[in-house]
Amino acid sequence: MFARIGCSAALALLVPLSASASSRCDAVLAALASKLVDATCVESTDLTTNNPATTPLNDSIPGLPLNAFIPQTDRLVLVNPPADVTPITAPVPGIQIQGWFASDPAHEGRFLLRLPNAWNGRLVVAGTPAQRSEFASDFAWSDYVIQKGYAYASQNKGVYNFYLTTSADPLGCRLAPTPPFNSFYVHFYDDETGKPFTQWAQYMLDAAKFAQTGVATMYGSPPRFTYAVGTSNGGYQVRRAVELAPQLFDGGVDWEGTYVDDSPPNLLTDLPPGVLNEPDYVASGFNPASTAARNIGLAGYPPDLLNGSDSMWVRYYTSYWELTACQWQKRLDPTYNTYGTDGTGLATYNYTARLSASDVGAQFAAFATTGLIFKPLITVAGTMDALLPIDHHARAYQRAVAANQALLPPLLSKLAPPYRLYEVQNGNHIESYKSFYPSLEYLLPHAQHAFDLLVAYVEHHTPLPPNQCVPRGGAIATAPAQPGHCTSLFVGP
């Protein structure tokens, strides 16, 4: 991982404010005074994660329960690359602003802005995966772009993470379906009243607006270009950014964005079959020819990977499938009996049947992605994603974009912004799983490459490479050997 610096050294990196430095912070804070509350500005000689002070410690906001604010953990969960994937070659001096969105009465929505001294005239706004903090993309995106001189902003979709609760909590989700963790329950902040998923897009747009104000104040001019980047639910935020706000963004890179639609496929059609069939699959001795394995495959999931008795599907089952299904069901279909009288409530959740029993369809439709993009967009997705299966998420969104662009008259279709899907063979949703299954591929370098390709297209009209399968060990190519979709989701050994 990245080099680490002790606490005393970290304090040394936070230099006393000179008159000019103080005035910079004061000016930016004043410009954002009506938009942020309890905001702070720090002058630092290094805005990268080589400086431990750049990303706060876990549980460092007074008054919050454990696990509500865990930025150090957040940046490791989806993306935990070796140091040579995003090398940090030199310190990046500048200022860092943090605060809460003044528009949030719950005082949970948080904003982050990093402004390097050596600015390249551009801004990157990051979406945030899952329900994690505004620091969740520090390794994936911040380190990469601020070293290039970009200003960098992020937000937390308006919510903290979760806290431990009990089964008596109506919003409680059990941590895992298997002992001993099935006796532990967590309460997600984004299932609470006043925190609908519809706000995810708005926080992304507001972060861009606030960041553009901060940039203009710091440097004396607004950014020439603003780009959106994000992973998982943060990738969803990127898609909504280029659908809703072409006036704010010049393009985006979504890394395995969540596909949201009131018609299948969606998370509440995909996750229950995994939850239902995984125990029988394990009981079969991980037999790929078992009925359970076939049912999981028919639900869209890539093939399982085994390392001895260590199963990738089991890891997803115990860490993500049921917990994510609970989180979304509590928000979108709260009257459903989550665990049922026999403990199989989520395993037997039937989205189609629930459309006439609840307003779950309307809840999905309220924050659905449309595929109607107004600025160039690149999706980077792994073929071995077992949380957001590629055909039900990345390819589904590609189909939505194509369907919208097919409706355009011929003259207008030539003006439609480009969309690209780069499928990374053997890529997984959780980068750290490569440690358990070496045949997996990191997506991070491909996502960062896609960002550079997007910038070259927007600013220099360099053609984007076509849709393609990026073969295992390969790279996005101008003339790919396999255009379009990967014919094999997994290439061994």
Polypeptide structure, described:
There is one protein chain. This protein is α/β, with parallel strands linked by helices. It has 2 domains: about 1-160 and about 195-260 and about 365-493, 3-Layer(aba) Sandwich (Rossmann fold), CATH 3.40.50.1820; about 265-365, no CATH class. About 30% of the residues lie in helices and about 15% in strands. The strands form 3 sheets. Strands 1-2-3-5-4-9-10-13-14-15 form a 10-stranded mixed beta sheet, with helices on both faces. A 3-stranded antiparallel beta sheet has the order 6-8-7, with helices on one face. α6 (about 235-245) links the parallel β9 and β10. α5 packs across α6, α7 runs antiparallel to α8 and α7 packs antiparallel against α9 (about 310-330). Mean pLDDT is about 95; it is low at about 1-20.
